[in-house]
Design brief:
Rossmann fold; about 45% helix; single chain; alpha/beta
Length: about 220
Amino acid sequence: MAAMARAGALFDMDRTLVKKDTAGLYARYQRDLGQATLRDVLRVSWWMVQYTFGVIDAPRVARQALDYFRGKEERELIESCEGWFRDYVLPHVQAAGRAAVERHRAEGDLVAIVTGATRYAAQPLALELGIEEVVCTELELDGHGRFTGQPIEPLCYGAGKLERAKHLAERQGFELADATFYSDSITDLPLLEAVRHPRVVNPDARLRRVARQRGWTIEEW
């Protein structure tokens, strides 16, 4: 008898596994270190409002945000995010999210974070929760380990997140159509529609409305 294929269990990060937006937490971290101004923090907050309502111009905002890292060394961001995660993010990791990850792992599922954030923000959380895979927005590097200030297309956002999740499913040998995906955001509707088990967690108003109309599971973490 052939072995059964693993199922996929995919988790959004911001406002799902983590109670808050990690971009806002990183802006606060930079402000506390004197590396960002109040204006910088408010700009990130405005982007988060636009993201919540699904009206953000993601490519434009991504390029604006990533230009800050142009010329900086990758290793510096890795080290910075390790300390940031411990002090600013870890206290906001959802207990219910931990439990859901453990439940899927116990069932033998392939567990992945699928997030619009960068790998530098998401990898410490993956390590904390023992999650195997991170699907995220990837940043371009030059030949010397420095950021160019450009993302690698597609952005892990909207249809781009679905495309990147499809690549993960192909690489890991599970059917995306049979997977579970946990998310809070209307911007993740393409991927939620692509899986068998959409799990709507702490949803924004638009996603809550869609979930109720379609009979999707709504969870409050």
